[in-house]
Amino acid sequence: MLTKAFIPYGGYYSTPFARWQGTLANENAITLGTETSRRWLADKKWDAKMFDYLILGITVGQPKMFYGGPWAAALIGATDTPGLLISQACSTSTTGVFQAAVGIETGLFENCYTLAVDRCSNGPHTVWPNPMGPGGQVTSENWVMDHFNLDPWGGTAMIQTAENVAAAFGLSREQCDAVALRRYEQYKEALANDRAFQKRYMYAVEVKVSRKKTLLLEADEGVMETTAEGLAGLRPVLPDGKITFGSQTHPADGNCAVIVTTREKARDLSTDPKAEIRVVSYGYHRAKKAHMAMAVVPAAQMALEKAGIGVGDVDVIKTHNPFAANDVYMADQMKIDVNGFNNYGSSLIFGHPQAPTAARLIIEGIEETVMKGGGYMLFTGCAAGDTGAALVLKIG
């Protein structure tokens, strides 16, 4: 259990998530994320030089990524601040926040900026030398599509891992469709009253179209209207499967940031000092081969155990659910109501830009918990390689 690491209330943001091959498709995720952070910090009237460390989370290669951490720190204005680059698929920002918290807990850091950026659009191609190949032909790899379609250890596409869990535990097509519809209805609640909930944390992203023209993306792009009839009419993605394109997430682009600091600094930076946010614990797990959805439960249970609480003590639960089967499985295993968590949105609906996904869900969980008057918030989610990671925060 951690006792010294805090997140200032309002010390975070998420951009809207843009649809695959949409508005952000041609932007370098690192420079776009740092430009957004720089604007956000300026609006807050915060000097980036106050950060003594930066953790950059990214999973899809971008130009100059080799210099990622220190380059990102310099670009936000923290020119004397070192930085670290981490990449852990969908768990990237979960682990980034935790690593920042460990740095605060041990006294290594005093004020850490965790920035998560990714662009699934226009995924890069890596070309590897292959001098022994026929005619010296190169070996190539698409960072996005190849990785979605094949886990080199599991030997399957990511969607197959969800189908494996659905088959092993008797999850039905109807259950998956029902959860997808429920998650869409929950997302629409975040749009009520002129997007009042999203405006608590969402920060617009600017895209320079030309020297004189700048495009402002202020709301999520690519969310599909969902109905029971529409879901029922879709074919499974895989033959005889339970998952359709309506009950799985879609790749996206975006960025998020979370400040992790000491209690004293958090109080100074917080827009509401009464809303104290403490990073309490972290959990992780690796499920059996090609059963990724199973990892979310033991990861959550580990985080809860380290926090000294049970799932019944948790006030808000958010999950990274690339497939509806993940939430159905988790609810069944943890004996909770599948309709009672992921209020106001989930990655199943608003998309999955990899590194920033968990950060946005954690941020939404903070805001929902504050609205409820405080309590414990649990985030858990799966990640490539049949892994999962979870985080418990105490708010108020």
CATH top level assignment of the largest domain: Alpha Beta
Main sheet overview: 6 strands, mixed
The ordered string of helix (H) and strand (E) elements is EEEHEHEHEEEHHHHEEHEHEHEHHHEE
Distance between the termini: 17 Å
CATH fold description of the largest domain: Peroxisomal Thiolase, Chain A, domain 1
- Using DSSP, what is the number of strands? 15
Percent of residues in helices comes to: 25-40%
- Please, what is the average pLDDT? 97
Please state the CA-atom Rg, rounded to the nearest Å: 20 Å
Total domains: 2
Shape: globular
Name the CATH architecture of the largest domain: 3-Layer(aba) Sandwich
List segments where confidence is low: pLDDT < 50 over at least 5 consecutive residues. none
Provide the β-strand percentage band: 15-25%
Counted by DSSP, the helix tally is 13
Give the full name of the CATH homologous superfamily of the largest domain: Thiolase/Chalcone synthase
Question: What attributes characterize this protein structure?
Answer:
alpha+beta, 396 residues, Peroxisomal Thiolase, Chain A, domain 1
Structure commentary:
The protein is α+β, with helices and mostly antiparallel strands. It has 2 domains: 6-121 and 207-218 and 250-269, Thiolase/Chalcone synthase (Peroxisomal Thiolase, Chain A, domain 1), CATH 3.40.47.10; 158-197 and 276-395, Peroxisomal Thiolase, Chain A, domain 1 (3-Layer(aba) Sandwich), CATH 3.40.47. It is built from 13 helices and 15 strands. The protein has helices at 29-44, 68-76, 92-106, 145-149, 158-168, 173-189, 192-195, 228-232, 263-269, 296-307, 324-334, 347-350, 355-371, and strands spanning 6-7, 12-14, 18-19, 53-57, 83-86, 111-119, 125-128, 139-142, 205-208, 214-217, 252-261, 277-286, 314-320, 375-383, 387-395. Strands 2, 3, 4, 5, 6 and 11 form a 6-stranded mixed beta sheet that branches. Strands 1-12-15-14-13 form a 5-stranded mixed beta sheet. A hairpin with a 5-residue loop joins strand 9 (205-208) and strand 10 (214-217). The longest helix is centred in the middle third of the chain and has 17 residues, at 173-189. The chain is globular and about 55 Å long. The two termini are 17 Å apart.
